[in-house]
């Protein structure tokens, strides 16, 4: 962690960020004060949601006994403004990352795709006649008579009830869940501009 702290002292927060993330990914036991220093780094990089997560984790783990308790409480107070801006902004997700048009539905929220019921054939077999177009009846003399199916007009098939014969169905985009937008890797400035520092997502 010394390398990360040294990077913080010279205001090289990108380097500090990388070192902290490598520490987390290593699976090794983390120093007790590490969540606080990481939260400060994330704050400087504008990753306010992640910063809040880590400062809360630090206070949860160390309580009043943490060496950086007072600094952590001040940081938590400083985060209130940026977090409130994120929550009020319609241009970003709840983590503060700028939303962009979904590349799957192109922002339309829905997708046109082959009907899953009729397999894009537009028609389905008539269930009354078993798709034969004829109804079989046995009369009182035990003689089998055949009649044209009234339901399908003897065609043995009907327009698909799901797609109404179009062969296509429209459903909510599964990528953006019908929102038309997906988070980008860019931090939101809550204006028309885009902040390009912030490609690191994580970390609950």
Structure commentary:
The protein has 204 residues and is α+β, with helices and mostly antiparallel strands. 33% of the residues lie in helices and 20% in strands. A hairpin with a 5-residue loop joins strand 4 and strand 5. The two termini are 20 Å apart.
Describe the secondary-structure layout.
Elements: H1 2-9, H2 13-26, H3 34-44, H4 48-62, H5 69-88, E1 97-101, E2 110-114, E3 123-125, E4 134-138, E5 144-148, E6 157-159, E7 168-172, E8 181-188, E9 194-195
What structural keywords apply?
elongated, three-stranded antiparallel β-sheet, two-stranded antiparallel ribbon, 204 residues, 2 domains, alpha+beta, 20% strand, 33% helix, Serine Threonine Protein Phosphatase 5, Tetratricopeptide repeat
Task: Produce a short descriptive summary.
With 204 residues, the protein is of the alpha+beta class. It is built from 5 helices and 9 strands, in the order αααααβββββββββ. Helices cover 33% and strands 20% of the residues.
Mean pLDDT: 88
CATH class of the largest domain: Mainly Alpha
N- and C-termini, Cα separation: 20 Å
Beta-strand portion reads: 15-25%
The name of the CATH superfamily of the largest domain reads Tetratricopeptide repeat domain
Strand order of the largest sheet: 1-8-9
Instruction: Please tell me how large the radius of gyration is.
Output: 31 Å
Q: What structural category do the secondary elements indicate?
A: alpha+beta
Any low-confidence stretches, pLDDT <50, length ≥5?
A: none
Query: Can you name the CATH architecture of the largest domain?
Result: Alpha Horseshoe
SSE ordering: HHHHHEEEEEEEEE
The number of distinct structural domains comes to 2
Largest sheet: 3 strands, antiparallel
Count of DSSP E strands?
9
Overall body shape: elongated
């Amino acid at each position: 962690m010394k390398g990360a702290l040294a990077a913080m002292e010279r205001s090289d927060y990108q380097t500090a960020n990388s070192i902290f993330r490598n520490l987390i990914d290593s699976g090794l036991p983390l120093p007790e004060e590490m969540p606080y220093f990481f939260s400060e780094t994330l704050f400087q990089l504008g990753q306010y949601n992640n910063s809040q997560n880590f400062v809360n984790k630090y206070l949860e783990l160390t309580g009043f006994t943490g060496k950086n308790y007072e600094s952590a409480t001040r940081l938590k107070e400083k985060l209130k403004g940026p977090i409130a801006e994120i929550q009020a902004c319609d241009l970003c997700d709840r983590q503060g990352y700028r939303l962009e048009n979904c590349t799957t539905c192109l922002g339309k929220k829905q997708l046109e795709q082959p009907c899953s019921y009729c397999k894009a054939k537009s028609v389905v077999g008539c269930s009354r006649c078993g798709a034969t177009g004829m109804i079989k009846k046995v009369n009182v003399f035990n003689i089998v008579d055949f009649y044209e199916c009234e339901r399908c007009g003897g065609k043995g098939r009907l327009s698909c009830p799901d797609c109404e014969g179009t062969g296509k169905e429209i459903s909510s985009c599964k990528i953006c869940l019908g929102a038309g937008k997906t988070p980008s890797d860019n931090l939101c400035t809550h204006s028309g501009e885009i902040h390009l520092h912030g490609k690191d997502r994580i970390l609950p």
